[in-house]
Amino acid sequence: MRIAVLGTGMVGRALADRLDELGHEVAVGTRDVAGTLARTVPDGEVSYAAWQREHPSVRTETFAAAAAAAELVVNATGGTITLDALAAAGAANLAGKVLLDISVPLDFSKGFPPTLFVSGDDSLGERVQAAFPEARVVKALNTMNAEVMVRPALLGDDGHTVFVSGDDAEAKAVVTGLLTSFGHTDVLDLGDITTARGTEMLLPLWLRLMGALGTHVFNFKVVR
Amino acid sequence: MRIAVLGTGMVGRALADRLDELGHEVAVGTRDVAGTLARTVPDGEVSYAAWQREHPSVRTETFAAAAAAAELVVNATGGTITLDALAAAGAANLAGKVLLDISVPLDFSKGFPPTLFVSGDDSLGERVQAAFPEARVVKALNTMNAEVMVRPALLGDDGHTVFVSGDDAEAKAVVTGLLTSFGHTDVLDLGDITTARGTEMLLPLWLRLMGALGTHVFNFKVVR
């Protein structure tokens, strides 16, 4: 599949790396292509420039060019810039496409622990769907670390859960297929996009668990 | 141990039943003892009057009398009345005691799904600790159904997680012992009482899961 991954941080790179490995045609979308490719200071394991050299088959393009050519778009941008990044990608380039939204509504401006800038009776997933009504938004993967998202087997064979929320059943089936190809064995459909409120509000617990456990390699399993 | 369970709903009864079964000396605390004992309409499996007949060794007392005689107090009242109920129990009767707080800050006044009336940079657990600074508050069990709280083996032998949050390490050790006696095998200490923000914000996801799974007999396991 031709897939655009919007966002050049750890989440975007983890997704792009794994999708490339699985044989998809991947473009990473960014605001400023030249600026991104000129980043030679490591952020994460390596710099973006070094990461690009290690992934010659992944293209780095503008948000709009990546989204225009894609059949499926992954939003892996930070929550605070998500709506701007998607606007730069262009509503027309998202229309009719599955939009896998991984963004988290964390506000780090007041330090740690961050607070949620959307919660309660709204969610970032809903805001994305409302802003781009023709996109087929599926919220998923936003409850775990990037490594666990794409390589769930890191946590052993016992299984753990990935939630999907969205209004479009066919779009959720496409995302479920993608998650299964990553190795996820328990994809749990919570319902429509308003159920993203619940998974987005899991983040404060996730952050405290990271502190208590001293690792970000963990996940929730719904035992039933 | 002499234990007061404040609250006569499903959570209070489940706790009182299990603690009684385990040999503790249990008093259920309520605002109006005569009124509570006169409740003959089933709410839950049976009415309170019938439940009391089935539990002759459990006393039903005022919030204050139950708390005064107790070594450990369990707050199983609804979130919206928690601070009032604890005020009725009396700050002096809670001073120096372990206060296991199970309450959830759900507001059902606008229908389903309910919203949280405290969240973000505060929690009901913190409000309880702030209002009763001499109580040794431990937030726990607030992330699962009453049956699962007291009979975790209902979900099989694989184990699942119960979180504890609190400022007093000794109080958390006492609560951990109690949870272990219920059958919990994974008691995870998140840290101080501010970590209750995370577990209280898990409720919206819990409610959506109940809808998606069609059961309230499930729990989260932190796989790591």
UniProtKB/TrEMBL annotation, chains A, B:
Task: Tell me the ranges covered by the Pyrroline-5-carboxylate reductase catalytic N-terminal domain, including all copies.
Answer: 2-105
Keyword check for Oxidoreductase, yes or no. yes
Q: Which Pfam families match?
A: F420_oxidored (PF03807)
The source's superkingdom equals Bacteria
Provide the transmembrane region boundaries: none
Record's SUPFAM superfamilies?
NAD(P)-binding Rossmann-fold domains
Give the protein name, as stated in the record: NAD(P)-binding domain-containing protein
